[in-house]
Amino acid sequence: MCGRFALFTPLERLAAQVGASVPDSNLRPRYNVAPGTWIAVMYQASENEQPIIDEMWWGYRPRWAKSTGSQPINARVETVATNAYFKSAFSKHRCLIPADGWYEWIKDSKPKQPHYICRKDREPLFFAGLFAERDDGSMGCAIVTEPGRGRAAEVHDRMPLILDDDSLKHWLAPDITDRETIRSLVRHINANLVEHWAVSTAVNKPAEGQGEELINPA
C-alpha cells in the first residue's frame, strides 16, 4: 500500500517533466503527507488541454457513491480496470501523484518502525493515480499500487505503481481509454532504482512531525 509520502521537489520542476502548468497554489514542501489532506496532483482534463498541477483530496469517492461510500486511498493495479468503483476512472480519469519518496513500516515491529523508500539518485517519483469528482464537488484521488518489487519488497508486500518517464504522458492522456492500449504503453520503473532506510518513529504522528529531518537515517 501507500499511506504516507514526502514531496519537496519544487512544483515547477515537476511540471516541466510533463509540460504541465502550475496554477497559484498554497502547496509547500511536505515530508509527511497523510491521507485525508490536500495533495499535489497532475492531470489532463481533455485531449486539447495542457496538463496542470492542482490540489486534490487524498481519498477517492466518486459522486455516485455519495457521502456513505468508502474512501480508499489506494487502488490495486490487478483489479483497477475491472473493479466497479474504479474502472471508469481508470479509463477516463487517470492522474500522476508526484513524490520524492514514501514510507512503509516493518511488519510487527514495536514501536512501529518506518522506512523511507526513494530512488537511489534522489530523482522525484510519479505515482500512477485515479481521480473522480466527489459528492461535495471537490476532486478526490487514490494511488495505484502493485506488488512490492526489488528492495521495496523488503519492507512491505505492496508499493506504489511508479511510472517511468516515457509512460507519464500516456498515463495522463484522456483520449487513451482502452485497457489493453494503456497496458501496452505504460511501464513501471526498474525496481533496482529504489532503496530504503530506517527513519525516526516521529513519522508515525504526522500532526507532530513534518520537518525535513524525518527522511534522515535513524
From TrEMBL:
Cross-referenced Gene3D superfamilies: SOS response associated peptidase-like
Keywords, alphabetical: Covalent protein-DNA linkage, DNA damage, DNA-binding, Hydrolase, Lyase, Protease
One Pfam family linked to the record: SRAP
EC number: 3.4.-.-
One GO MF term attached to the UniProt entry: peptidase activity
InterPro entries tied to this protein: SRAP, SRAP-like
Keyword DNA-binding annotated: yes
Keyword hit for Transmembrane helix: no
Any one GO BP annotation for this protein: protein-DNA covalent cross-linking repair
Family under the similarity heading: Belongs to the SOS response-associated peptidase family.
Protein name (Swiss-Prot/TrEMBL): Abasic site processing protein
Species whose genome carries this gene: Halomonas campaniensis
